[in-house]
Task: structure prediction
Amino acid sequence: MVFAEMPEAEGRDLSIERRQLPAGSRIECFTYRGDADVLADACREADAVLTDYVPFDRAVLGRLARCQIISVAATGWDCVDVAAAAARDIRVAAVGEYCTDEVADHTLALMLACERGLRAYDRQVQGAHDWRWNEVRGLRRLSGLTLGIIGFGRIGQAVCRRALGFGLAVLAADPRVDEASVRSHGAEPAALDDLLERSDIVTLHCNLDAGSRGLLDRRAFAKMRRKPLLVNVARGALIVEADLAEALDRGRLRGAALDVLAEDSPDLGHHPLIGRDDVLLTPHVAFYSETALEDLRRISAANITAFLDGRPDAVFRLIPVPAGTP
Result:
């Protein structure tokens, strides 16, 4: 069994995972540093792989001789080519839900920090020792603004509940959720383009797949007539970052608050969104609380044990094999 992890997770405590895995398992750790060949070699003889965001593409999967399951310690599984895995009789599991409240809370925290000018006020007081209320201008009253939620699953719905409490009107775009369900949560169903045109704030809560990669690009930003604040706590690759930087430069957006970037280990020294006053960044922490982290680690490891024990129904979220897989 191999724990395949990104460099920022190297050396982390694995005691919770080890307690959930089959007794007597031989466990090896591998830190991925961008070399797919080394990754394939490290996992070649593993019966199971537990990973966070390490990419398992068709080439890597084709070299796994014994693997039966790849368990992703996240709610998304875009790091694994599920079709290619299924063709090798490798199943993919994810953690269906463990941090809904944390991500929804973080979404509102980012939104409020931007809309209330907290970064600017903090710099004013802490740096300039200036205690004047009117140095920061242009703040908006949240009540009466329109929030557009792209992706209306558990997290999108939790964000909606919180937003309604602030007096925001809510639009929701999600082709997988029927209109009656959207309305039952107090939101108005909307097509994506309509949402982009009408929203004062846009927040992303959808999965990353082939159809959603680069969802917000130059064309999408051009539709944002109300110059919204953009919030992303989902996946960085939903946004074309160069197009976002251009849209900010052109004044098409009020600003951006991002918990994720396109790369999971970004080069912060040479990134187009670093160092901007109109961009608030957090390092992929929306999921985090001690309780959520413990649930994540426990469930992702328990998924491996359940599957290897022949109990696939006990896996928290076993990703369906794509239609047409041989």
Notes: The first strand starts at residue 2 and ends at 5. The mean pLDDT is 95.
